[in-house]
């Protein structure tokens, strides 16, 4: 696989992971925690798919002096990971709020 294809896949899967994480957050805001979990699972799958391409950069023939596109693509994937992890924590807070509301209601 050439460098451009690897970069494309890093950006693609990073973007998909981020989008799924935000879909999970939207579902949690509505109180649909099962849907939120499904989106988080998809976000994890997308991230790990992207991670495979990141490994191709660091372990394969593609390892070379990084260029701007390589740096950008890796940044996209790692930013998606950071956002996904933060969103998971936010969803846990939504769950706690929901439980408290049920106790009070």
Automatic annotation (TrEMBL):
Keywords: Magnesium, Metal-binding, Phosphotransferase system, Sugar transport, Transferase, Transport
Residues annotated as the enzyme's active site: 72
GO terms under biological process: phosphoenolpyruvate-dependent sugar phosphotransferase system
GO MF: metal ion binding; transferase activity
Keyword Metal-binding in record: yes
CC cofactor: Mg(2+)
Modified residues (Phosphohistidine): 72
UniProt protein name: Phosphotransferase system cellobiose-specific component IIA
UniProt source species: Caldanaerobacter subterraneus subsp. tengcongensis (strain DSM 15242 / JCM 11007 / NBRC 100824 / MB4)
Lineage: Bacteria, Bacillati, Bacillota, Clostridia, Thermoanaerobacterales
